[in-house]
Prior knowledge:
CATH superfamily of the largest domain: Thiolase/Chalcone synthase
Order of helices and strands: EEHEHEHEHEHEEEHEHEHHHEE
Low-confidence stretches: none
CATH architecture of the largest domain: 3-Layer(aba) Sandwich
Strand order of the largest sheet: 1-7-6-4-5
GO molecular function, one term: beta-ketoacyl-acyl-carrier-protein synthase III activity
Keywords: Acyltransferase, Cytoplasm, Fatty acid biosynthesis, Fatty acid metabolism, Lipid biosynthesis, Lipid metabolism, Transferase
EC number: 2.3.1.180
GO biological process, one term: secondary metabolite biosynthetic process
Largest sheet: 5 strands, mixed
Shape: globular
CATH class of the largest domain: Alpha Beta
Distance between the termini: 14 Å
Enzyme class: transferase
Amino acid sequence: xxxxxxxxxxxxxxxxxxxxxxxxxxxxxxxxxxxxxxxxxxxxxxxxxxxxxxxxxxxxxxxxxxxxxxxxxxxxxxxxxxxxxxxxxxxxxxxxxxxxxxxxxxxxxxxxxxxxxxxxxxxxxxxxxxxxxxxxxxxxxxxxxxxxxxxxxxxxxxxxxxxxxxxxxxxxxxxxxxxxxxxxxxxxxxxxxxxxxxxxxxxxxxxxxxxxxxxxxxxxxxxxxxxxxxxxxxxxxxxxxxxxxxxxxxxxxxxxxxxxxxxxxxxxxxxxxxxxxxxxxxxxxxxxxxxxxxxxxxxxxxxxxxxxxxxxxxxxxxxxxxxxxxxxxx
Length: 330
């Protein structure tokens, strides 16, 4: 079951008016195409691990109490790990003072948090662990081509953390079901080609690698709408909910037009859509927990509310989760 959430974004907001003049965009242009008014950028020397730590610290602090009150595992969903090797999660666990708990990264890009929920649910149901810290964190600013306005206006940096724990069926916070999928035939639609084993296996100097994040926006838009809509419909059938029974729809905060298109296809009105995109942009694996934490802070949720979370990311990957909100709202 989900027990609590917290979020963190670095620095001051970078508003549309402050975007580089070379991009030749203004506030109206960006808002019309993306729904974004500002985003946050990590400062020099600030990494994904730093953002993950800040979000987790706001959720659990540095636990010094009995061992049974501490997370006994850490899962970090990210597409921007601090290093290609090792994973970032073990260093995060150590920094939080959690000792030698198991810790690992999940690489499902913007679907990472939903994939992480499913993984944590499975680990707890299996009896391996009782309380897992799940963090979604990305510092996309480290991957963006400074001359590519199509990605520059959309992506921001941030982290969101959640505690997943054991519980009883019917309890508020219960994770009810998941729908996950992927299509590796389209892996090139969202990619960073340089730096991995594929690029390193090729002859030629390292300087020939493309180190930047690339996305074929129009095609990605179509896939995102179709995959998230289909996944949501499948999961609604699994949990036997009608769309009008969903209290809160929390999609990956990718683009305002994508969010509206998916909600419209499902028949979920705007009042039930949780949107944080306008203030933080697309924060990758952090977007859903950040949106949850923001809405929870505004007391928008009630214990037992029916929640539908859905995401789409590179890979291609997608996933949807159904749960009931924990109470009281965190």
